[in-house]
Amino acid sequence: MASISLRGIVKRYGSGPKATAVIHGLDAEIGEGEFVVIVGPSGCGKSTLLRMVAGLEEVTDGQIVFRTAAGERVVNDVEPAARDIAMVFQNYALYPHMSVYDNMAYGLKIAKVPKDEIRQRVEKAARILELGGLLERRPRQLSGGQRQRVAMGRAIVRQPQVFLFDEPLSNLDAKLRAQTRLEIQKLHAELGVTSLFVTHDQVEAMTLAQRMIVMNGGRMEQFGTPEAVYARP
Ligand code: ADP
Ligand code: ADP
């Protein structure tokens, strides 16, 4: 697991006189194994921040640092695939012609992970996500909730140091949203992977977060436990 330091993070889109800053110098320390939710209104910069941690967006100024047992590395210039992260989006695209097993195994095959190890990792993920009996099915033979779990399985099998969630629940109906939220909590309890979860939904933030970052207009307004954040006048 990695801890993450965000040091003086600035993001500007565009350049010269037309440049607009959307993140204005953000500092935060996310502990090893911690589940942190980034919450705030639409357009406040949540997604931009997460995408910078993922390496999908360049950091204009400041440093993103991952710290593991192996040491500390500034990841600003590290490509996404080499960051040891896995991202879960709201629109998970499963391969329709592949079985559940192959959907989860695909990324590992590309990465040339040995077959035996792929099988072990897929079976472990399937056990955690209760997909054990469904490995031979195609996505169209699954319920919405099961598909969402396969998408999470694909992230788990990579054994990342960090999980990044970009509003993964926002397209689901209320029942499925509640169910998937429990699934994510269980996953974190079991694997303890450092997680950053972006949402605009305060209830979601409160129920999932160990600590939450409250953003507004590209700035961090608060960073604390849900109790501490909501106790503030
Ligand atoms: P949130 O995830 O909180 O809704 P975003 O991170 O998506 O917010 O966006 C933050 C701000 O940056 C918004 O004002 C948005 O319009 C702007 N923005 C996002 N992406 C781009 C881009 N590629 N070019 C210019 N501005 C952008
Ligand atoms: P390839 O086409 O590269 O041979 P396969 O998809 O046939 O890959 O299977 C790769 C490995 O995964 C094999 O060792 C196979 O036994 C194992 N495997 C495939 N499907 C399952 C499954 N549903 N449950 C357990 N192991 C599986």
TrEMBL record:
Coiled coil region boundaries: none
Superkingdom, natural source: Bacteria
GO molecular function, one term: ATP binding
Location of the ABC transporter domain: 4-233
Keywords annotated in UniProt: ATP-binding, Cell inner membrane, Cell membrane, Membrane, Nucleotide-binding, Sugar transport, Translocase, Transport
Identification of the protein by name: Sn-glycerol-3-phosphate import ATP-binding protein UgpC
Species per Swiss-Prot/TrEMBL record: Sphaerotilus microaerophilus
Name of the gene encoding the protein in the UniProt record: ugpC
Full protein stretch here: 1 to 233 of 386
